[in-house]
């Protein structure tokens, strides 16, 4: 079994491309007066979050990599390094991404890490870089364990994860409308991902895909972008700070405050950490399911299309 | 990529994009056209909590609202808006107007530019929250 294997650090090499594309999008929006919005502090916060994500990867990356290498040491399988194995690894890692992303919206402990990616009220290429600093603490690296145990080398898995991240960069834009139907049917696109960033009841908890939108179609979470319902970007309750530290940690602080409040049972404390975001022991808050149900009840005309219960 | 090159790229990239965005005039704060706009912005955050009276700041960057759960504030947040109930808020005066501190890690402090009379009136209106 090969222990030594290396692939290029594709995310680092993509950084100049990210910067160039952001500049192109910014100039396009300003000169054409369409295709999205930029705001200085919002963009700056997103970019600093992106830099912090890279830094946290350098500091904490050894945790996940050590875990993967430990699994690699015990698995009897080694699928090798052929192009077809890399391609299969990419597809399976994208399936892994779908589920981690879905958990990220449905389990508050994981949402605490992912929420910052949704905390901008803008949707442009800088939003793509508004990434977590605390991903290691979600322990979602365990979802990659089956890939390693099946014989995909950890370096290959991380390489495919990097390609996945790079693919998702360009879909964070309003400058691209819809792409050819065959492409929209198979691939994640700006249109599909705009829906994912929407705070409209219809668009909550939809389109978790990384690269292939087929996972959402397969698992019943696909919602198309509706021409008659413009996406409202951001969180159900938007932040009131551009401070990157507060953006990175606000949901962790909220969990801590909820879990440690007096008078709760042990189960209630656990639920504040692992139940869907918006769960509360006294029903004083709303989960996305409750928001969708209320929306369906209160606005009967909204029933046309996907994303609302009862349709 | 060597780490020092990556760091230089990231630092220059962030600074360059931020400066260019500012030079393009994209740093201005949103403005509430009128009370209806402030009301709509409030309902965007609290769709189940209809505002009663809406008091728009003279600079139109913030508005106080009354609700059945107590006073709330909707304010400019960059080019957008956000809102909070003022439950547990601490309100103090400063040279520019008012500073509202909330027991909320995601919106800890809101600085409002108000003239003296306005600041005094808003302090009274928010008095129930403290």
Please give the structural blueprint.
The complex is a heterodimer of chains A (311) and B (130).
Chain A lengths: L9 H23 L7 H35 L8 H24 L1 H7 L10 H4 L16 H5 L4 H16 L11 H6 L3 H7 L17 H6 L24 H16 L6 H9 L13 H11 L13
Helix pairs in contact in A: 1-7, 3-4, 3-7, 4-11, 11-12
Chain B lengths: L2 H21 L11 H11 L8 E3 L5 E6 L2 E8 L2 E6 L4 E5 L2 E5 L7 E5 L2 H10 L5
Antiparallel strand pairs in B: 1-2, 2-3, 3-4, 5-6, 6-7
Give the overall silhouette of chain A. Answer: globular
Strand order of the largest sheet of chain B: 1-2-3-4
Largest sheet of chain B: 4 strands, antiparallel
- Beta-strand percentage of chain A? under 5%
Run of helices and strands of chain B: HHEEEEEEEH
Strand content of chain B: 25-35%
State the separation between the terminal residues of chain B, measured CA to CA.
54 Å
Rg value of chain B: 18 Å
* Alpha-beta classification of chain B: alpha+beta
Total of DSSP H or I helical runs spanning 4+ residues of chain A: 13
Helices and strands of chain A: which structural class? Answer: mainly alpha
Tell the overall outline of chain B.
elongated
- Sequence stretches where pLDDT stays below 50 over 5 or more residues of chain B: none
Transmembrane segments (chain B): 6-26
Keywords (chain B): Membrane, Transmembrane, Transmembrane helix
GO molecular function (chain A): glyceryl-ether monooxygenase activity; iron ion binding
Domain Fatty acid hydroxylase (chain A): 86-221
